[in-house]
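Reply to dn_fold:

You asked what the input looked like. This is it:
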Amino acid sequence: MMQVPDSLRGLKELLQECEARVLAFDIDDTIARSGPGFMRGLLGAFGNPENLTAEAMWAKYGRNPVPYWDMEAVERWCTERLDSPELHEGFSMVEGASEALQKIETHIPIGLFLTIRSESLRTVTRDWLRRYEFPVAPLEMLPIGIVHNDGLAFKAMVLEYLYPEVVGIVDDRKELLSALSPAYEGLVFLYGHSDTADTRAGVICCPAWDDVLFRVREIFTEPSRC
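and this is what came back:
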């Protein structure tokens, strides 16, 4: 069973003392264009007979197998670079993300950035957030010793532990919904999606950042400040 990191215990105590309600934000493919960043490297390593850009390849295939690539070799390539600071520092920002978070912060505080990136990428991730002028907030990462494949289970554990002080998250991964307990009552703003099979009331599909901002304004009319 996963243990709750001490950093989370301290954050929960602080939020309880303030009687605050805050929102969490994912990083990869929610505010950082990580998928196209990885895809750019894969195109160089494995070829591109369709002559598509990295962005077009990511839009077409996403995390699904590319039929003309050796997917075992692709998996090895990605695994070797999963914790590469050089790769992660080169990711561009999802268009409009920084501006959207600054506007969201006027309705509900940015409580933390919650990512399944390894703790070893903390410095490069912090530098990236500063470079793109995101609001300052705690950064919770995958602890050393937890494998990446267990990342969504870790994220779900964090969200369930911090609820109700952290009222929910903006995240692009539909798979997170399966990792969360059916009893979880927090909100999931599902970025980049227009629909989902999940029927929980707290799941809110938001195809673009404008949609996230609209729904946040609709739900949080009286900001909570610590």
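DSSP finds ten helices and six strands in the chain.
Hope that clears it up.
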